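Changelog-adjacent note: as of this version, every example in the card shows the full chain rather than a window. The one below runs 223 residues end to end.
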Amino acid sequence: MNLSFNINHLNFLLAGAGWTLVLSLIAFVGGGLLGFGVALARVSTSKPLRWLSLGYVQLVQGTPLLILMFLSYFGLSIFGFSLPGIVAAGLSMTIYVSAYIGEIWRGCIEAVPRTQWEAAECLALSGPQRLFLVILPQALKIATPPTVGFMVQIVKNTSLASVVGFVELARAGQIINNSLFEPFLVYMLVAGLYFCLCFPLSWWSRRLEDKLRVAHRIEVATA
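Full-length structure tokens:
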């Protein structure tokens, strides 16, 4: 029977795009929470904590996301933990994102001028007060553009979740192509949907970088 692309195939692709967004959100929220802890550990005054967090970052960044997916889905099953595809993918991406976003935020915290730390110390603020009341609000503005930019990488990396049986956008396109054998049409549509998901984030990131650059120039001019 000769099949051709129809509205049902398009709906299936859109459903896959929806699950891509869900997985991206899980990865960003989970990875952001864990990454915040990593960033704080990386700038901690405790040397063992700094070394431990550095080891975590190096281990995760040195391990391909695909391997993390395999370990979460197949590796844990050896110990009796059988995880659904979305749970295994979400766990893998949370760990992966936490290492990278933790380093992004660590760099932004350390980018706050040292004079701000010293000024907060002169006000007799405690360590946590200096960090949360003075440093982090300034680091937040610096961190926003690269964080939004990294979200593009999160969206694109969800395509690896297909190896654990999770049907996101890339996997949905593969399933449709296996039945239609029209790779050019199917994967052009998949690429177009990824573009629609990623371009607004890239545009937003550039706008935030421009605003940050203008704000910095104003601060320098008025200093």
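Structural remarks: The chain is about 80% helix and 0% strand.
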